[in-house]
Amino acid sequence: QVRLVESGGGLVQPGGSLRLSCAASGFTFSRFAMRWYRRAPGKERELVATITNSGDNTTNADSVKGRFSISRDNVKNTVLLQMNSLKPDDTAVYYCNAYLTAGYSYWGQGTQVTVSS
Hints:
- By secondary structure, this protein is mostly beta strands.
- About 0% of the residues lie in helices and about 55% in strands.
- The protein has no helices and 11 strands.
- It has strands at about 5, 10, 20-25, 35-40, 45-50, 60, 70-75, 80-85, 90-100, 105, 110-115.
- The strands form 2 sheets. Strands 2, 4, 5, 6, 9, 10 and 11 form a 7-stranded mixed beta sheet that branches. Strands 1-3-8-7 form a 4-stranded antiparallel beta sheet, with no helix packed on it.
- It is globular, with a radius of gyration of 13 Å.
């Protein structure tokens, strides 16, 4: 059974940091690229960060460059999103996605991140 379980969300003040974690099971994690998406209220889903299956390459959305960092551990089957210098605009539900091809894409249930004073 494929599972992606996100954790680490919560309430943080502007300028603060959070680290999201996604634990994967039920598939060959090291074959899949991993992505973090987010959806803010009233907005479309946004791709935040991507990491290749090997972990050699990462990309970030312009909106989070220099503040967010994605990483993975192919032994522990986890992917992390380190979020620094958080802004109120970062408030959203964050989703972990495992992507191999269009037919093999798995999603977690999401974790809420709220940035507010």
